[in-house]
Amino acid sequence: MPKKDIPVLSKHHNFSFSFVSNSMAMATTIANRAPKVSVLLCFSIYFALLSFSCSRVLGQSSPVFACDVKSNSSLASLGFCNTSLGIDSRVGDLVKRLTLQEKIGFLVNKAGSVSRLGIPQYEWWSEALHGVSYVGPGTHFSNVVPGATSFPQVILTAATFNTSLFEAIGRVVSTEARAMYNVGLAGLTYWSPNINIFRDPRWGRGQETPGEDPLLSSKYGSGYVRGLQQRDGDPNGLKVAACCKHYTAYDVDNWKGTDRYHFNAVVTKQDLDDTFQPPFKSCVIDGNVASVMCSYNQVNGKPTCADPDLLSGVIRGEWKLNGYIVSDCDSVEVFYNSQHYTKTPEEAAAKAILAGLDLNCGSFLGQHTEAAVKGGLVDEAAIDKAISNNFATLMRLGFFDGDPSKQLYGNLGPKDVCTEENQELARETARQGIVLLKNSPGSLPLSPTAIKSLAVIGPNANVTKTMIGNYEGTPCKYTTPLQGLTASVATTYRPGCSNVACSTAQVDDAKKIAASADATVLIMGADQSIEAESRDRIDLNLPGQQTLLVTEVAKASKGPVILVIMSGGGFDISFAKTDDKITSILWVGYPGEAGGAAIADVIFGYYNPSGRLPMTWYPQAYVDKVPMTNMNMRPDPATGYPGRTYRFYTGETVYSFGDGLSYSSFNHHLAQAPKLISVPLEEGHICRSTRCKSLDIAEQHCQNLGFDIHLRVKNMGSISGSHTVFLFTTPPSIHSSPKKHLLGFEKVFLTGQTETLVKFKVDVCKDLSVVDELGTRKVALGQHVLHVGSLKHSLNVRV
Q1: Which of 688, 663, 669, 689 is nearest to 678 (CA)?
Q2: How far apart are CA 291 and CA 185, in angstroms?
Q3: Other CB atoms closer than 10 Å to residue 48's CB: what's the count?
Q4: In this model, does residue 36 exceed pLDDT 60?
Q5: 538-595: per-residue pLDDT in tens?
Q6: Do the beta carbons of residue 330 and residue 361 sit within 8 Å?
Q7: Euclidean distance between CA atoms 13 and 15, whole angstroms
Q8: What positions does the domain Fibronectin type III-like occupy (predicted)?
Q9: Which terminus, N or C, of the chain has the lesser number of Cβ atoms within 10 Å?
Q10: Above 50 in pLDDT, residue 55?
């Protein structure tokens, strides 16, 4: 049930119960993220947070900021407080005023205060994966702001394939974050989104990501970042600062004894550049993100947070990051203590800073950097460079501009959190993301007038917190699936299992209510006890006796049987797909605070489902033979390795990337597309005289080299609905290219029996290129096959 404020102090104070839970969640998160922290210490932290919260959460109602000229007029003469100067000048002025010890205090997430300069302590660590979160010490809920809008977990939002929605959610979250900052409850720097590729279906954190496709992940990451960051009227200013994580090739948490603190991801240059890196590149270049977080794992033998090629070379050098690079929490300590990458802690501190790390989540750099400087391992100029990136980010946020109430977002407050509009957007996102995977004639939508009795069964049928996944905050309110369904028809409810582990199913009770009901809805799946940070799955079967419960209830049911899977990752539900008694299947992700209302909207036909799977659902046989630790994307016929994701996987699927049904049918007609594209080459180019399979991408032959594709899309049904148009291509078979990959997607809304024109702009060098074995992007010459639904169109690219 939802958490409520309960008075436990004197009559003059209300202490939010949510904070007790939030503190416990934070202690648990610290235990998960910092492997060397003892359980005892975590609970010490919990009780310290608890006592700290009584004074802070209840007492503090003003934001933390520097350059408070009103309280100390002498600060007005300091250059870094002068808003008429440029950011570089202000940062330079601040850095030169600091001692070495003071500088080192700004290398860690709990940044030090310098009272002589009017700089208060600032906590960098806040989270906003799908709403303002209580994970991380920078953000709290209280009786002033008891909750924030909790959107669906990212994997379901990705299933909407609606780029404008990604950005709209970011705008809402940043508005609520600023509102909470203004009353002293939140920070300005948020370590979200997670844009790692959902490479393996067992990964416990796949739920946090936009799925398995590099283009979708790129569009989601850059869109959400723009929504969070873009500041009205100031292209360089920041509303809040986002952070794209975890860089890079991070997607093993804890699988059969291999954990993220010790894992070395062996990745080919080809896979790195065409699968793992594109979302990060887009986040920096297209999203202009203010931060990138390096991960715990090693990539090809080097910890990512100590790799100068990955950090200084790529993020800051090639992609030109305007912001700071932060470590995952305690990852510098991890590569010293767990990976034994350096002999001394001072060497570890120096290697991280010299690689390009600016901020350490944790205390390691605070403890060991001074000794590293004194030992000659790193010079003070490198520290100046790091903290300059951190200060520049805070300057762009207005942290050094004085009283926030006099600034652009100063009028935001508790009234702007959990507004009706924001809560409706959470419900709309869930509706748009829910995926209809199976629908037999006469099953969905159910008629709310014809159905007089509905059996609602399953361990996820009446859940609250399960719906919001991880990296969650206290929501505005919950609507459970049972509540959502009961709002339309009379229901009878049996959980069927005491929890999702379902060690013993109460089959007879469930069968009894299904046998007499007009229809049955089974709400099954997972929760954080099955898939989570630090918890990867071993298999893809529904947990415990869930399959038995579903099958037996379906046999006994009188009317249609709707199976609802609530989960982050996919399951092998082949048994349900082929069982004629199970008439419909819905996947609802973790659908957020309004999940139950959205599920009911789809089941009763108030909303026509339009979600599409952002990841492949594999059979159990796949994970029986493929180790999670094998990072190779491409299949290997010699060993029988089948490859990964829809782009390369050669085996059978339960459901495929992009699958999803509607209550309408949609027809595509190709209206315009070229059959031949010629790439202009300069005189003397080798490919004029020699037959080439591919061309290096060069500015001279890529400029303005593109074309348009026009498609007519018609809603053939009588029901209005949205439809995602996917444009895929199958490139020529060179350089182990993908068997197909996504070039673009567009979501359109069509009333019954109407049509629209959808246009795609194709950039030949970007969209029709492949990455070769050395990691170089090249234009593939030869026949490309474009796919839209069942349509195929051949296109020849030649010189």
Answers
A1: 688
A2: 22
A3: 12
A4: no
A5: 999 999 999 999 999 999 999 999 999 999 999 999 999 999 999 999 999 999 999 9
A6: yes
A7: 6
A8: 723-792
A9: N
A10: no
Percent of the chain with pLDDT over 90: 90
What is the number of residues in the chain?
799
The beta strands (E) that lie in 328-365 are given as none
Contacts of 700 (CB under 8 A, 6+ apart): 680, 682
Give the residue ranges of DSSP H helices in 97-205: 100-104, 154-158, 163-182
C-beta of residue 778 within 8 angstroms of C-beta of residue 768: no
Q: Name every residue whose Cβ is closer than 8 Å to that of residue 318 and which is 6 or more positions away in sequence.
A: none
Positive or negative torsion for Cα 676, 679, 683, 689: negative
**pLDDT for 282-337, tens place per residue?**
999 999 999 999 999 999 999 999 999 999 999 999 999 999 999 999 999 999 99
Contact 203, 253 (CB under 8 A): yes
**Secondary structure (DSSP) of 219-257:** HHHHHHHHHHHEETTEEEEESSB--EEEETT---SEETT
Q: How far is CA 245 from CA 176, 209, 423, 522, in A?
A: 22, 10, 27, 35
- Decide: 111 and 119 in contact? Cβ < 8 Å: no
Whole-number Å distance between alpha carbons of 216 and 615 = 11
Q: Cβ(89)–Cβ(362) under 8 Å? A: no
Instruction: Give the Cβ contact number of residue 37 at 10 Å.
Output: 19
pLDDT, mean over the chain: 93
Tell me which residue has tokens 């990138």: 292
Q: What is the DSSP string of 574-612?
A: HHHHS-TT--EEEE--S--TTHHHHHHHHHTTSS-----
Secondary structure class of 550 (helix, strand, coil): helix
Q: Which residues partner with 763 through β-bridges?
A: 706
Scored b (16 or more CB within 10 A) or e, 332-348 reads: bbbbbbbbebbeebbbb
Active site residue 328: yes
- The token pair at 46 is 């919990």
Spatial distance between the Cα atoms of 132 and 22, rounded to a whole number of angstroms: 12
Alpha helices, DSSP H only, in 682-783? 686-689, 699-702, 764-767
DSSP element (H, E) containing 44: helix 39-59
- Catalytic residue from among 200, 213, 251, 328: 328
Alpha-carbon distance of 798 to 784, in angstroms, equals 11
What the block records as the tokens of 788 is 């839209």
CA atoms of 197 and 195, how far apart (whole Å): 6
C-alpha distances in Å from residue 736, one per residue of 164, 268, 635, 739, 799: 34, 12, 9, 9, 21
Identify any residues that bridge with 231 across adjacent strands, giving them in sequence order: 234
Query: E-assigned strands of 526-675?
Result: 561-566, 584-587, 666-672
CA-to-CA dists, residue 699 to 320, 399, 686, 709, angstroms: 19, 41, 17, 23
Q: What is the CB-side half-sphere exposure of residue 298 using CA atoms within 13 A?
A: 16
Is the CB of residue 163 less than 8 Å from the CB of residue 210? no
Token code pair at residue 239 = 């509303």
Instruction: For the chain, report the end-to-end CA distance as a whole number of angstroms.
Output: 65
Residues sharing a CB contact under 8 Å with residue 131, sequence separation 6 or more, in sequence order: 148, 149, 150, 151, 173, 176, 426, 468, 472, 473, 475, 592
Q: What angle do CA 408, 410, 411 make, to 5 degrees?
A: 110
Cis peptide before 2 (omega within 30 of 0): no
Contact status, residue 197 vs residue 154, Cβ threshold 8 Å: no
The two structure tokens encoding residue 390 = 């951190």
Beta carbons of 243 and 291 less than 8 angstroms apart: yes
Question: Which helix (H) or strand (E) is 365 found in, with range?
Answer: helix 364-374
Nearest to 228 by CA among 191, 183, 266, 261: 191
In DSSP notation, 688-706 reads HHS--SEEE--HHHHTT-E
Report how far residue 748's alpha carbon sits from residue 8's, in angstroms, rounded to the nearest whole number: 52
- Rounded to whole angstroms, the Cα distance separating 248 from 297 reads 8
Name residue 722's beta-bridge partners.
749
